[in-house]
Amino acid sequence: MRNASAGRMGRLSWLWLSVLVLVIDQASKFYFEHRLDLYEQIVVIPDYFSWVLAYNTGAAFSFLADGSGWQRWLFALIAIVVSAVLIVWLKRLGRDETWLAIALALVLGGALGNLYDRMAIGHVIDFIFVHWKEHGFPAFNFADSAITVGAIMLALDMFKSKKTGEPVHD
Hints:
By secondary structure, this protein is mainly alpha-helical. It has five helices and three strands, in the order H-H-E-E-H-H-E-H. It has helices at about 1-10, 15-35, 70-90, 100-120, 140-160, and strands at about 40-45, 50-55, 125-130. The protein has a three-stranded antiparallel sheet. The chain is globular.
């Protein structure tokens, strides 16, 4: 009876990872928001890496950040829909799909972390700044990192061998 119950739940047991991402994301944002002033920068590795407090009302790379506020609700709605899809997808995964479960849990945790920011304070808190040439890479946060790692894992999963065990051919 226990196996049947576990099968109905799919890989929802990996939601602990989503919660961990959410907790680390929110704790780190809280820390840096209370440690730094807006746009204050602490250089960790000169010319490569800094902590900096920035607010993003847009999406990745500040996409639509200059909107009048409607984008907050659009991105919140997208995050809610994506989160629901990810939970259903996790529930439908088989026991042998651990890699995919981890990827989905990372994306879900990151989406929820940024969703919380949008809903609670109206913008996403960013604090990681990787210098790239003269201007630097846009600031990001732990949630963005989890989403990126999860998305890369999802992409890599597409190249894995088929479920039947046959290698993928060109």
